[in-house]
Amino acid sequence: xxxxxxxxxxxxxxxxxxxxxxxxxxxxxxxxxxxxxxxxxxxxxxxxxxxxxxxxxxxxxxxxxxxxxxxxxxxxxxxxxxxxxxxxxxxxxxxxxxxxxxxxxxxxxxxxxxxxxxxxxxxxxxxxxxxxxxxxxxxxxxxxxxxxxxxxxxxxxxxxxxxxxxxxxxxxxxxxxxxxxxxxxxxxxxxxxxxxxxxxxxxxxxxxxxxxxxxxxxxxxxxxxxxxx
Amino acid sequence: xxxxxxxxxxxxxxxxxxxxxxxxxxxxxxxxxxxxxxxxxxxxxxxxxxxxxxxxxxxxxxxxxxxxxxxxxxxxxxxxxxxxxxxxxxxxxxxxxxxxxxxxxxxxxxxxxxxxxxxxxxxxxxxxxxxxxxxxxxxxxxxxxxxxxxxxxxxxxxxxxxxxxxxxxxxxxxxxxxxxxxxxxxxxxxxxxxxxxxxxxxxxxxxxxxxxxxxxxxxxxxxxxxxxx
Amino acid sequence: xxxxxxxxxxxxxxxxxxxxxxxxxxxxxxxxxxxxxxxxxxxxxxxxxxxxxxxxxxxxxxxxxxxxxxxxxxxxxxxxxxxxxxxxxxxxxxxxxxxxxxxxxxxxxxxxxxxxxxxxxxxxxxxxxxxxxxxxxxxxxxxxxxxxxxxxxxxxxxxxxxxxxxxxxxxxxxxxxxxxxxxxxxxxxxxxxxxxxxxxxxxxxxxxxxxxxxxxxxxxxxxxxxxxx
Amino acid sequence: xxxxxxxxxxxxxxxxxxxxxxxxxxxxxxxxxxxxxxxxxxxxxxxxxxxxxxxxxxxxxxxxxxxxxxxxxxxxxxxxxxxxxxxxxxxxxxxxxxxxxxxxxxxxxxxxxxxxxxxxxxxxxxxxxxxxxxxxxxxxxxxxxxxxxxxxxxxxxxxxxxxxxxxxxxxxxxxxxxxxxxxxxxxxxxxxxxxxxxxxxxxxxxxxxxxxxxxxxxxxxxxxxxxxx
Lengths: 229, 229, 229, 229
Description:
By secondary structure, the first copy, chain A, is of the alpha+beta class. Helices cover 40% and strands 14% of the residues of chain A. A seven-stranded antiparallel β-sheet of chain A has the order 4-3-2-1-5-7-6, sandwiched between helices. The longest helix of chain A has 24 residues, at 177-200. The two termini of chain A are 31 Å apart. Chains in contact: A-B, A-C, B-D, C-D. At the A-B interface, helix 3, helix 5 and helix 7 of A face helix 7 and helix 8 of B.
């Protein structure tokens, strides 16, 4: 069942490792089959060198296990919340990639300082509000999704495919799980470069809005001319 | 004798290398067989590319060689001191991993700035007091273990599986040698992220205590729900 | 057609990856056959693990496709502008390599702080002026080449084989595409070392002019004595 | 002739690459046969992936080529100067390894902030004076050796096996070329950790002299007890 999706989700999880975005078992990727309303997601805490497509868990949008004999990723409720509210996304990735996590820990958005950023994110990468003690105590992972959705009240997940959760780490997404991985990799790169840029000049200015728009739109949307179309 | 343990300890030493935690020969891992009271430990100063399970030294808790024809790691007395005083641990790892060592050299504990930290360490990673000239002159490695034990008078090694020795480097441990390696890798990652976080914001706040507890307890203890149980 | 050049350009693109200068698909290399006035360049947005010599696009100096069935790199107009104005260059490389890009984002030239820099670049690596909104709106990539040429009014591309575009990233070149790759790698290294040097001492002085000249000229020009001649 | 030495010197040069100490062709290692007064050294500017033992150049202590048909490393006069004045050394390594070079460019010695440093270097790693314009103009590489020797007037090359040349990069040495490589790797590690330590605390104190001595002497000299003796 969902063999192709499980294969893609497994490969995406392994790509997180080869791209240097995960340490030990700290990361998970999922993909959704919108027609059936089913999500394939990495099992919790499994070593990457033992991961196979058959191990991917299949769950419905309420988190009921449909296929698989392991425990799904403990971050599953966050993934499901994003799928329920962001109808255009097909894949979600969560990592503790080091530089993006530094910004999450510093509780700062990632400013848009260059075109690499603008190629992927249409503006500063936002950060959610902190969770209250009550939210952490009951349904922590669900509420993590909730504050992301809350933060996106006036943002478009299609043009801003990542977010930071303060004191925690980033989540990224895309039209499919492969694009979600690429956005997670882009996020890590722009976080590293934003940190370094501000070490060179603490006052380094944000990118001109017209240059930001130019770069985002040459890669995304109807007038895009980057890539093979 | 102790073939399985020696095999595991050898593999753990090699994992330190593949995880990027050691340079040249600067690191050592050991594991204990509590029933027999015997410890398998890496020989001193041997190149990682020549390491094999047969070379692991077996010693008793007083440091007497029981098996093997090499000199055991010069840090052996520190390992043994930890095994004697922390009865629940089964493996010890010592590295000079770069970011954790930076904090040891700066003589600062590693503050808990995020959930990656809280997933592994229930609070700031502590630092011991400095050794006196007398302690260094007689039984240096034994006293290194002693100041760690002293620092843990009011800490639980089961929930704080690492420590920094000032001007020196970290030690980490776990229920077995494989968990000790994972804790050493987690320590390096959280040290790197703490350093970067404070470069972004020198005043970055420590994690909310309720979030720290939540993350530690979702991975550890009776109510844990991370991993495959 | 141009099989050897396409082979070299393909290999150069792959070298960018193995040298750690590109993430995902963010980079492109091209080479020119001056006799025929034809340029071989990477297709746009193609994954490096799927790249082959046959895929290289061949275009003339006005950007007309002469061979190949893909879209050429979106940065092609910048490459072509450089080939038209810098008659001695045979290869061009564009990357978003992280440390060079940090300087571009901080909108600072890279000061010459050591002999590694002087071995490759005869003075600080310059930065162009910013593009105006009009320049970005019409023929963005062409104008990017234009501001580079403008910046080199009193610089020699043969002795200064790289430039930073503010808010964007570096371009590098060389007598052939292989030398362009080496200059891109040198640029990244000197950017990293300049950043680190100024972290150690924010006032670190630039290299003595006589040492700069000595190092540049022992590797370049008629009296060079580095390498196999 | 000198086949074993050439083999060792070749392997040492390749180890510089695998240890991450060189970029492109920026590094060279040599070894001496003291009985014959002959030195095997890397040829100048040759790619590491084309290096073989047969290519190693053999020269006498005055730089006359005894065997080989390439140009020896342009830094050869510095190597030879060190061999002539430091009679106990058997190998020399020159790299532009990034963190050690940052200190050379900042024109600062590397302070001894921890036991990793003390395990290899008995005190701060010194920096030479700058070369004058005259010294650079005539016999630059020979004078580079000269200022190193001058700096070591009151230092022992056996206990301080590395030095920084301001605005340039480090040199390291050892009893043989393999130990020289290890010292170059240790130097890079302690430079990285010194930089990071001072980022955490700009006032971080140097290691207690008694701890420095303890660590140096447990690895070196008659009472050493690290390694297999």
